[in-house]
Design brief:
Length: 294
Amino acid sequence: MTNPRTHPGGSTTMTSSGQLTLTNGVQIPTLGFGTWQIPDGAAAYDAVSAALAAGYRHIDTARAYGNESSVGRAIADSGLAREDVFVTTKLPAEIKDHDAAATSLQESLAALGLAYVDLYLIHAPWPWAQMGADHATGNALAWAAMEGAHEHRLARAIGVSNFAVSDLEKLIAASRLKPQVNQIKFYIGNTQDEITRYCQTHDILVEGFSPLATGSILSNADVLDVARTYDRSVAQLCIRYVQQRGVVPLPKTTTPSRMVENADLGFTITDEHMALLDGLTDTATEHHGPKPRA
Ligand SMILES: NC(=O)c1ccc[n+]([C@@H]2O[C@H](COP(=O)([O-])OP(=O)(O)OC[C@H]3O[C@@H](n4cnc5c(N)ncnc54)[C@H](OP(=O)(O)O)[C@@H]3O)[C@@H](O)[C@H]2O)c1
């Protein structure tokens, strides 16, 4: 189903299912399946197998999630052709060095059992223990290894995650190839407008992680009110909202019925409701206590 609302970046129209084209011509499905916090072994294998059976063709993992081998086995056992599944993994945020980055991608490929990934991302601009610190030099070194991987077709596209405008500007100034993607936290009430606008006006596709605020938006009364007018669940409304903002959502669930629900997005949120949702704040119940690393 085609969504008439134009991508805020200008040129691309997002559809509820389908593909977008990155600057290097690589096609990316407009709905991904997230795997953070799904343990390696049966849990990750079963979740990814069920997601592929439900029709997802875009899987998001990371070296840091520790589940690449189960994700890879599920893809291999799915019977799908390699070129029909878009696979993303990520360079650990702590690696800010050329050779260690090249080695880490090899380890990811070995764990996944793949000859290449479709998208390889720097997981964060800083090690998780130093959030906000300036690692521009280290990012440029890691990025050079990723440019090499792209040239050698080990990664069909390369990008970043959790990068702010200043992180991106420094990386772009120091590199040959501009990131094709920035994966950032994006849900109703937390749309990171400055970085989203920057990416969308510089042809960097935005992927939205935690489109359900890791589950903590699901009881929001304002969002529920809008969802009801479409006879849709809060999860469906949240995921569709992200798509209509020109961002690729990456919802995670280990519940097969929810996988089907979250991919059933054949409806259009009106401009009036989009504006209402754009104006919401404090939509998520904040988590307290230590947060697991994303
Ligand atoms: N780059 C980064 O730094 C970064 C950071 C965070 C996340 N990510 C990526 O983004 C993905 C998604 O983000 P996320 O894991 O934070 O979570 P999310 O997709 O925002 O929310 C997942 C939570 O919502 C629940 N849920 C899913 N669909 C539902 C439905 N239809 N009805 C009710 N509950 C539902 C899930 O429960 P059940 O599983 O129990 O069904 C789970 O508790 C991650 O898995 C990862 O791939 C990337």
